Amino acid sequence: MSVTAISKVVTANDLRSGEVLYLRFPHSWTPELARASVIKDNDLAKASLAFAQGQPNAVVGAYLSDVIDKSDGPKASHFRERFRSTGPSNYRHGKQEL
Amino acid sequence: MYQYSRFDHEFIAERVAQFRAQVARRLDGSLTEDEFKPLRLMNGLYLQLHAYMLRVAIPYGTLNSRQMRQLAMIAERWDKGYGHFTTRQNIQFNWPKLEDVPVILQALADVEMHAIQTSGNTVRNVTADHFAGAAADELADPRPIAELIRQWSTDHPEFQFLPRKFKIAVTGSPNDRAVTRAHDIGLRMTKQDGLRGFEVIVGGGLGRTPMIGKTLSPFVPLDDLLPYLEAVVSTYNLLGRRDNKYKARIKITTHENGIEEIKQRVEAQFAKIKLRFAGADLQLLKDIEQQFAPPKFRASSEPVEADSAPAQSPAFRAWLDTNISAHKTPGYAIVSVSLKKPGATPGDASADQMRALAEIARNFGHDELRISHEQNVILPHVLRTDLPQVFQALRQADLAAANIGLISDIIACPGMDYCALATARSIPVAQQIATRFQALKLEHDVGPLKLKISGCINACGHHHVGHIGILGLEKAGVESYQITLGGDAGAEAEIGTRAGPGFGADEIVPAIERLLLGYLQLRLDRNESFLEAYRRLGLAPFKALLYPQARKAA
Lengths: 98, 554
Prior knowledge:
The complex is a heterodimer.
Chain A: E1 6-14, E2 20-24, E3 28-30, H1 42-53, E4 59-70, E5 73-76, H2 79-86
Antiparallel strand pairs in A: 1-2, 1-4, 2-3, 4-5
Chain B: H1 6-27, H2 33-42, E1 45-47, E2 52-57, E3 62-64, H3 65-78, E4 82-85, E5 90-93, H4 101-110, E6 127-128, H5 143-153, E7 168-171, E8 185-192, E9 195-202, E10 214-221, H6 225-239, H7 250-257, H8 259-277, H9 280-291, H10 314-323, E11 324-326, E12 332-337, E13 348-350, H11 351-364, E14 368-371, E15 377-383, H12 387-396, E16 411-412, H13 427-440, H14 443-446, E17 451-454, E18 468-475, E19 478-485, E20 497-498, E21 503-504, H15 508-522, H16 530-537, H17 539-546, H18 548-553
Helix pairs in contact in B: 1-2, 1-4, 3-11, 5-9, 6-8, 7-8, 13-15, 15-17
């Protein structure tokens, strides 16, 4: 197992499409959880969330989400976040169309 | 069916124009999300897990073929080629882009539809018996009253900020197909001394505190109905709690104050406001009633019965057995089109299927369609002689599942596959149960069964009133499913009883299988339904089937 620690990412929904996005340092958004920047420091978490909330014309509803930091990128630690990062299970829609 | 008046057209056009400007202001940064959110919710636009979701009202579940084709067009052009029909006779589009929503609303307005008051603390889409205007057992078509209520409640200045959302359901039949006892107000048509009126039921609801509605008045004459409803909602508006969201529905107001107190206040308010209505409501109702005149039914001299035509296939006969209901006009039938083919998502229809349904309705169904709260589509007026052709056309559209009222005819909310409020998924559970029982070939043996699944305590999937209810929750970081038994959505509505601890996602289907295989052993004979057996035997033997380990341990 390459689990190292419980860590966080900043996630939100795209204002225009509603798609789930993740913050990638320094200041871009990615639809892929695996490419999100993992934050392991509380001050940085606070600052990153503030940065996200300061982009009301790009994203909606930003929050910090727990992840498991693995060698091939962060994975959601809760099933709700896992579904957000993958898309619905009944159709290959959303991120599964990529 | 009802055609929009000039007023309706102007009102909807104005709202579309307003929302177009509001979206533009949101996109250019003039409106913050906090400012915009209530505006989008007023127009039925939610932000869900993966995307925006637009909830469109289908008042009292009635559509014509032109409207159904427009829904197909919207699904194809601005969504992902399908729509999801809900337990409140709405359709939801799961993937619209914010900037496309104003043009979608315009496309809806073009066919006299809208998404107004499909969210927020207002009077929501008025639902009705999906067999309204066709059922052999109804006193009269309840839809004119439902339309009157739609007009009265839409943009009603007093009722735009109620303590909480407010749902009204209407039925014209003693066999309740509209779950009236689980609504904030349920209206059941009745007659007294030859006079038409309604039993007014108040304070029903599911959600975290499920309650069966209580009769506020056994008979309100038709002439008094609208001022009486206004008195009820007005009383609730003042008395309902605003300090706690979970105690704000009228079911709690009724529970805390008592039905007698509510009755007294409603009657005092009614006396005050009745004269103000001055008959304008009744004149309007007369005009509306004319628009709901029954179609010109054709007389048919050659009834086709399931066993009279040798060429009929077993598949057709099976479909006739389950998907056809009695029509009030000789020679006609009501066709229920199942959106529950085993393995499919309950309530979903592709754009192609919607167009096929529109075409069938136009060719064989007097241009009428209904959406049921059980997430199926109804062709209310089909000549029995046309049934073989209708079946063929449905089969071509992959819409011929013969399972209405059986275990695979499952109500399921979108659950955590889409909904931001959900605590677990519903859709995969429904898919797995339906395909499992198809594989076992036991569906017809098990017989009439209402299985209802909700992905959270808000109970959009009506699990409390399922003969078998499944509630998806989170337990210790995984999905967990609680089973309730003995619920009933019919005229003698009842809330089910929780059977015991929840089951994991991989345990729920085997648990349902044990339960139903066991029921086949417990029942007196084939005629005793699951619900009847449960009522006769009580919870204990069914609980033992669900929890065999507990039995062994004891």
